[in-house]
Specification:
It is a single chain. With 589 residues, the chain is α+β, with helices and mostly antiparallel strands. The protein has 2 domains: 204 residues, Beta-galactosidase, Chain A, domain 5; 376 residues, Glycosyltransferase. The protein contains 14 helices and 28 strands. It has an 8-stranded antiparallel sheet with strand order 6-7-8-11-17-15-14-13. β3 and β4 form a beta hairpin. α4 runs antiparallel to α14. The two termini are 40 Å apart.
Length: 589
C-alpha cells in the first residue's frame, strides 16, 4: 500500500518529492506551480522520474538531517554502504540576498565497500504531454520538448553521463553528485563546490530552526511541521502554498482531485499566525506584503485564493496525458474554486491583519494608512455580504447556503475591524461596527443553534453537524465553558468521529458522502476537547494521531479511517499548522 511515504525537499523557490527508495517522483520547475518535469506520482509509466537504483537485497533507510530540510537516503548491503543526500540550495550570499535557484542536488557519499548504482533519469517536461529530445554533451544532459510548449532541463554530474543516460552500471568510488537545474550553469562545477552548497544550505536550515522554541514536549513534531510550512512559502512573493502537489485524491478512484499549488487566504493566514508564535517573524512580514499587493482597496471582488505570484485567474483544466495517482482521474491543473464566494475569507484576513498590528506596532508607520484602507474595504464587504449565502469553507461547487461557520467568520471580521479601529482611534467606525457585530452574533445564536439536537449545525435550519464549528471558540466567538459550545463539541465528536479520526461532515455534497477523514478536523477536535476540560482524552488522541504520519513525520490532507493510509495533496500546510496549534494548546498547563 502506497502511504505517501515521500520525503520533501525544497528551498522556497520550488520543491521535490522523493520516494522512500530514493526516486524523485514529483518536481515542478522553476516554481511549485510550473509544469512538472518529474510526475511519476501521477503516472507510474510515463510521468517522469529520477531514480537511484540498487539490487533488491539492499536495505534502504531514510531520514532528515535533524532540524533541516535536507533528506538522507542510506543504502546498505553487507559491507557496502552509501548515502544520497538530497537538497535544494538555500542560503544568504555575501550581499545578504537569499540564494535559492531552481536546482536539485543529489550528493552521493560512499561509506564502505564498492557501491555500484544504475540511474533511471527520465524527465518528462510539461506534464509528459509532448515529445522530448535528449542531448548528451560533455558538460551535461539536456532534455527538452520538441513540440508544444517549450521546456528544458539540465543534468550535471561528475559521473559518466553517457552511462547515466544509457542506464548502465555506474561505480561510486568517491564523493559524487548530480545537479538538476532549470537553468544552464555558467560556472564550472566540481565536488568541492557541491560540498560547499551542501554545508551552506545545512547551516541555513539549522539557523532557521534555532529560532523555533525548543519545547519540553513535541519539539521534534513542531520543528518538522514548521520546516514544512517554511518550505511552502514562496521566495519570490511571500505567498504560501496550500500544498506542493496536484490531484492526489481524497479517495482512490474518486474525483475529489484538486490542484493545491496556490495560496488560499484562509490557509496562509493561519500559517502566519502559527509561525509568528514560533518566532519566525520574517515570514509574516513577507506574507503581509503579498496580501497588500493583491487585496483590492475598494470595490473589486476579493478572491479566496491567488497564484503564488498574485495571479487572479487560475483556470482549471484536466490533463489527459497522465493516468492519475493509482489511476485516480481526473488530473487537474488550476482550480475553479478561485471564482467561489466564501464569506469566511474576510474574517481570516482581518484576523491576521489584527495579529500583525499587535506584533509590529512600531513597524507599520510607512503603510498604516494603506492597511487601514484595506481594513475598511474588507469590513464593507462583510457588511454587504454576511447575510448572503456562500459555498462555505469546504468549497462546495454547487451548493450555496447559510453556513454557520461562514457567519461566525463574518463576526470575526467585524470584531477584528472594530479592534483595529480602536487601535487607530477611529471612533466614528466603532459604534457602527459594534452594532453590526452584535447583529451578526444574534443571527448566529438564533439561527445557527439547533435546539432539537442541542448543537450549532452546519447550515441554518438543517440538522447536519460540521467540524468547522469547533473553531468558534478558537476565534473568540464563544467561551470554552459555554454550555452550548460544550454540547456542540461533544455531539460533533459523537456524530463525526470514528476510531479517533474526524470527518468534516457526513451529509452528501457535490460528489456524494465523504469517505475519508480530513486531518485538520481531528486536530480541531483534540484542541476543543482540551479546552472544555477533557484534557487526558485530548492528549491520548493527539499521541495517537502522531503515529499516523509517514515515516518522516509528514502529513497529507486526508487519512483513510479504516487503513490509516494518508491521502490527498502532500505535504498539506493546513494539517501541519493545526498540529503545531494543537501541540501548543496541550502544553498550556
Amino acid at each position: 500500500m502506497n502511504n505517501l511515504n515521500y520525503g520533501v525537499i525544497g528551498n522556497c523557490r520550488s520543491a521535490a518529492l522523493i520516494s522512500q527508495t530514493g526516486c524523485i517522483e514529483w518536481c515542478c520547475l522553476p516554481d511549485p506551480d510550473s509544469s512538472s518535469f518529474f510526475a511519476k506520482i501521477l503516472d507510474r509509466k510515463k510521468g517522469g522520474e529520477f531514480d537511484i537504483q540498487v539490487p533488491h537485497d539492499f536495505r534502504i533507510e531514510q531520514h532528515y538531517i535533524p532540524r533541516t530540510n535536507i533528506l538522507v537516503t542510506r543504502y546498505s548491503r553487507k559491507k557496502t554502504k552509501f548515502e544520497v543526500i538530497d537538497f535544494m540550495p538555500r542560503y544568504k550570499n555575501e550581499l545578504g540576498q537569499v540564494h535559492c535557484p531552481p536546482d536539485i542536488i543529489r550528493y552521493i557519499k560512499p561509506i564502505s565497500g564498492k557501491p555500484v548504482i544504475r540511474v533511471k533519469y527520465q524527465p518528462k517536461p510539461c506534464y509528459a504531454q509532448y515529445q522530448i529530445k535528449t542531448e548528451v554533451r560533455k558538460e551535461y544532459i539536456k532534455t527538452g520538448t520538441v513540440n508544444g510548449s517549450y521546456e528544458s532541463i539540465y543534468l550535471y554530474s561528475n559521473l559518466d553521463l553517457a552511462k547515466i543516460d544509457a542506464g548502465e552500471p555506474v561505480p561510486i568510488s568517491s564523493d559524487s553528485y548530480f545537479l538538476v537545474s532549470y537553468n544552464q550553469k555558467l560556472l564550472d562545477l566540481d565536488i568541492d563546490w557541491i560540498h560547499l552548497e551542501y554545508q551552506k544550505t545545512r547551516v541555513y536550515w539549522l539557523d532557521w530552526s534555532a529560532k523555533t522554541p525548543r519545547f519540553q514536549h513535541y519539539k521534534h513534531e513542531i520543528n518538522r511541521s514548521a520546516l514544512v510550512l517554511k518550505m511552502l512559502s514562496f521566495q519570490n512573493s511571500g505567498a504560501i502554498s496550500a500544498a506542493l502537489t496536484t490531484s492526489i485524491p481524497e479517495i482512490i478512484g474518486g474525483q475529489r482531485n484538486w490542484d493545491y499549488r496556490f495560496c488560499w487566504m484562509r490557509d496562509a493566514s493561519m500559517t502566519i499566525s502559527i509561525l509568528t508564535r514560533l518566532n519566525h517573524y520574517n515570514v509574516a512580514r513577507r506574507f503581509m506584503s503579498y496580501i497588500l499587493s493583491i487585496i483590492p482597496y475598494k470595490d473589486e471582488k476579493i478572491q479566496i485564493m491567488y497564484g503564488l505570484k498574485g495571479q487572479k485567474k487560475l483556470t482549471e483544466k484536466i490533463l489527459t496525458s497522465l493516468s492519475g495517482y493509482e489511476n485516480s482521474r481526473p488530473v487537474r491543473i488550476g482550480n475553479a474554486a478561485y471564482t467561489q464566494k466564501q464569506n469566511d475569507i474576510f474574517g481570516v484576513l482581518l484576523d491576521v491583519i489584527y495579529q500583525y498590528l499587535m506584533i509590529y506596532k512600531k513597524g507599520i508607520a510607512d503603510y498604516q494608512e494603506e492597511l487601514w484602507t484595506v481594513v475598511r474595504s474588507l469590513a464593507k464587504h462583510v457588511e454587504d455580504n454576511w447575510a448572503r449565502r456562500d459555498t462555505s469553507i469546504w468549497e462546495f461547487r454547487t451548493l450555496r447556503k447559510h453556513f454557520t461557520f461562514s457567519k461566525i467568520l463574518s463576526w470575526v471580521a467585524i470584531d477584528r475591524a472594530l479592534k483595529i479601529a480602536t487601535y487607530f482611534e477611529m471612533d466614528r467606525y466603532i459604534e457602527v461596527w459594534s452594532d453590526i457585530r452584535e447583529k451578526i452574533k444574534t443571527d448566529i445564536m438564533t439561527k445557527g443553534w439547533n435546539p432539537e439536537i442541542n448543537a450549532f449545525t452546519q447550515v441554518y435550519g438543517e440538522p447536519h453537524l460540521d467540524a468547522s464549528n469547533l473553531m468558534m471558540e478558537h476565534y473568540g466567538f464563544i467561551s470554552a465553558d459555554d454550555p452550548k459550545y460544550i454540547s456542540t463539541v461533544l455531539l460533533t465528536r459523537e456524530h463525526l468521529c470514528q476510531d479517533g479520526l474526524m470527518f468534516r461532515y457526513l451529509n452528501e455534497d457535490d460528489f456524494g458522502k465523504p469517505q475519508t477523514s480530513f486531518m485538520v478536523c481531528t486536530f480541531w477536535l483534540i484542541k476543543s476537547l482540551y479546552k472544555i476540560g477533557e484534557k487526558q482524552t485530548a492528549k491520548n488522541m493527539f499521541d495517537r494521531i502522531l503515529q499516523y504520519s509517514n515515516h518522516l513525520g509528514l502529513y497529507s490532507e486526508d487519512i483513510d479511517i479504516k487503513t490509516k493510509r494518508l491521502l490527498g495533496n502532500f505535504p498539506q500546510g493546513y494539517s501541519h499548522l493545526a498540529l503545531i496549534d494543537t501541540a501548543l494548546t496541550l502544553m498550556d498547563d
